[in-house]
Every structure is written in C-alpha cells, then in structure tokens.
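Final report, Chapter 2: Outcomes

The project's central promise was a pipeline that accepts a single protein chain and returns its three-dimensional structure in a standardized token representation, suitable for archiving and comparison. That pipeline is now operational. To close this chapter, we reproduce one record exactly as it appears in the project archive, with the input sequence first and the structure output second.
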Amino acid sequence: MRVFVWMRSNTMVVPTSTCHRTLLLVLGALAFMCSPCMGFEYRINCGGRQYIDSAGNEWQADEFYKDGDMYQVTGTIPNTLDETLYLSSHTWAKKHPVQEYRFPDAPAGRFKIVLHFAALCTCADAVGDRVFNVTLNGKTVLSNFDVVAYIGWRKAVRIEYTLDTYANADLVIGFPRVKSVSSVNAIEVVLEELNPTTTTTVTTTTTTTTTTTTTTTTTTTTTFTTTTSTTTTTTT
C-alpha cells in the first residue's frame, strides 16, 4: 500500500507583502511535491491475502513480484503473534527466470526493509533442502540462506536491513536460488529519510526467539552469511 500525505489547508491568510506571498507559495509547492515521497511504504503478505497485523499495520495481498508461485498452508507458527504472515509464501523454482520483487519509482533515500521467512513445505523440512541468496538492488546481502538450518521448520525469522539509495529508481529485492526453491513470506519497505547525506552501507538486524549473538564480521554463526561492512546484530 502506498500512503500519500498531502499538506493542504482549507483556508489561507495571504500576507500583504509580495515577498511573503511568494515565499508561502514556494513552501506550499515544496510540501506538495515532497510529501508523497515520504509516504513510500509497502507491506506485502507474500502469497497471501490482505491482513491487519497485531500492531495495526495493513498488509496488502501479494503484488510487485516477478514470476514465481504462491504457496499457502494451514497450521501454526509458534514463535510469532502474526502467524498469518508466515503461513503463505511466494516461491521461485528453476522454471522461473526472474526471482524478485520490484517496487516502482522509489525516491533517493534511506529505506527500512524487513524480510520475513518461515519454512513451510513438508517436502523441504530438513537442513540443506532449500538454499538461496538475497539481494537488494543487485547487491548480495544474504548468502546461502537456509531457513531450516537457521531457525527450524515452521518457525518465523525476521531480518531487517537499512538501505541507502542515491537516485530515483525501482527498488528491487531479489531471491536467487542456490539449491532447489527460493521463497519469502512477507516484505516491508518503508522510506525513513529522503536523500541521505551519509554513505552508510546495508546493515542487518535478525530477530528470532532462540538466539542472541552480536558479531562484527561478515559471516554469522549459522550456515549463511551477510555481506556488509558494518556491524551485524542478531537479537531476540
């Protein structure tokens, strides 16, 4: 869902000074142009239906994907308050040449990107059955990711990234396969700041209910790696 915030007023007091009138018009135009950019916000329930989560956020049904299939199961995901987000996924097999979500016309800015994963299929409930990478705008940020190896079968894991972009363009999240099928259960993309002034690289926060580890290397203590030049943090 894209949210626009329009800064308008039903009434206006016009200053007597021509200079003040001009300034008011310029400020109004800037607010009109910039406010939609700051509303660049999507929450996608991949493979699933529209949903309101436990925090009141609205998730839209699956959209913005390229190729792939939708997959849904019944049952429970024990370590989350929002199991609806984890009982469906979007998957890509060998027959699907493009394995990505593409969010159009993203402004230059700093984005919070949250990816949600859970291994669902009984055909892939063992370590090593499914392995894939994750890319943000073509840069690999997660290598050889195996959901079962990391958190187990039918359990939720949430991985958060901070991504800076410096040009207006599509924002692309890729899930290239390494072994068998790649998949994702839910995606959040939220613009936090326009035109960042620093050159921060991708940073990562991983949330589960089982481990607490902090590392400053590019290799985690599990079977996958995150490629960043900053601190990688795993928290509960």
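Archive annotation: Residues 1-16, 23-36, 209-236 have pLDDT under 50 and may be disordered.
This record, like all others produced under the grant, will remain available to the consortium after the project formally closes.
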